[in-house]
Amino acid sequence: MEVRLLKNNLKFEYTNLVGAILIARRIKNGGRKMVKTNDKGITLIALIITIIVMLILVAVTVNIAMNGGIFSKARKAAFQTDVRKYQEELQAFLVENYDNNDEEYIDENGKQSGRMIGEVIQAKEFCETDNLEKCIKSFDTKYKGKFIIKDNELWYMYSGNKKEEEWAREVGLEVKSDKATITFKIQGEGEIQGENIDIPIEVKVNDTITVTALPKELTVGEQKVEFEFSKWLKDGKEISTNPSQTLKVVGDAEYTAVFESDETVIYYTENDEEKIFVTTETTINASTYSSTIADKTTITKVLFGKNVTKIGESAFYNCTSIENLEFSKNTNIFIAGCAFKNCSGLKNVNIPNVTINTGYGGYQFESCTNLENITLGSVGNPVLNISDWCFTNC
């Protein structure tokens, strides 16, 4: 095909269409030579820029989602849903296996039982040991170490995760520090061997402490009393009769090693020197010790022996310097009227493992105005009766 084009009296002849198109474009540009551009290079650069912009947008979006609340709110909702479920399961377990009369117990597998404390443990104590997953069946192991059961409630353990701590508080959980204060005490006469146990110690939760309780002979002047180890108490509750214990720390706690004797020991001071009066009588009256202890206000402590069955009327009336009353394990003890009336210095009454019947007359602890701690009776050893005005004016 022949194409004829005229431009400024110039004549061009081409024999094909491609040539005609090229010459026409050159004529349009004033006769200048056409420069071919690299379309592929421009496209590649544009693609790279687009990808970079998209990555920046994705990063910004994710950051907003994480810090602006989308992911955080989802995690919070899941966490609090789990916590509420665990709280409900725990309470259901306790209701099923434990009642307010301390009559229901469970065995080592968490099953309800009617047997006594020597054979099984109470539901609430069962849960407060290492049995959280048995008490809360749906407990997710991803939370292991983050929760404990204390005082029949689910607690969140300090983990350094501030958000989870805040979420836990929002649903009513107490947040427990990862540190715990452990205190050791002795009831009776003996000693506790172990590392750093002479004073309250601070340890990490989930750590273990190994201790051994050793009885000793009390010797004051010519008086000698043999003591034997009886039991370990945790916060006033019996946990073991084995003197050697490896204690797992789950929170603040007070452990008491209890040592007992057949004899009753009355501690008193004379001429600024501590002395003891020892008796094997089963009934303790004021006349029991009055011939030896002329001034009853000098009595500071009384350890009642295992054979004591009765504390007579006004037996320790007006013994204003007594601070502690401790009872050995017994089957039955009767506390008559006014037995400890006006013991204004009395701070601790610890009678956890005896059956108590505060009988006629009342006013057994009247005007014990400094009482701080009272433990009366225990599982299997109930308080049969507390008479009128037993703790009046305390």
List keywords for this structure.
single chain, disordered N terminus, 7 helices, five-stranded mixed sheet, six-stranded mixed sheet, alpha/beta
Structure description:
The chain is of the alpha/beta class and 394 residues long. It contains 7 helices and 28 strands. It has helices spanning 17-28, 39-68, 70-97, 123-127, 132-135, 162-170, 286-290; strands at residues 3-7, 10-14, 105-106, 112-113, 147-150, 153-157, 174-176, 179-187, 190-193, 201-204, 208-215, 217-220, 223-226, 228-234, 237-240, 244-248, 253-260, 264-270, 273-279, 283-284, 299-304, 310-311, 324-327, 333-335, 348-351, 356-358, 373-376, 383-385. The protein has a 6-stranded mixed sheet with strand order 19-18-21-23-25-27, with no helix packed on it. A 5-stranded mixed sheet has the order 10-8-17-14-15, with no helix packed on it. Strand 12 and strand 13 form a beta hairpin. Helix 3 (70-97) crosses helix 6. It is elongated. The termini are far apart. Mean pLDDT is 76; it is low at 1-18, 20-24, 31-37, 99-107 and 113-121.
Write the layout of secondary structure elements.
Blueprint: E1 3-7, E2 10-14, H1 17-28, H2 39-68, H3 70-97, E3 105-106, E4 112-113, H4 123-127, H5 132-135, E5 147-150, E6 153-157, H6 162-170, E7 174-176, E8 179-187, E9 190-193, E10 201-204, E11 208-215, E12 217-220, E13 223-226, E14 228-234, E15 237-240, E16 244-248, E17 253-260, E18 264-270, E19 273-279, E20 283-284, H7 286-290, E21 299-304, E22 310-311, E23 324-327, E24 333-335, E25 348-351, E26 356-358, E27 373-376, E28 383-385
Parallel strand pairs: 6-7, 8-17, 20-22, 21-23, 22-24, 23-25, 24-26, 25-27, 26-28
Antiparallel strand pairs: 1-2, 3-4, 5-6, 8-10, 9-11, 11-16, 12-13, 14-15, 14-17, 18-19, 18-21
Helix pairs in contact: 3-6
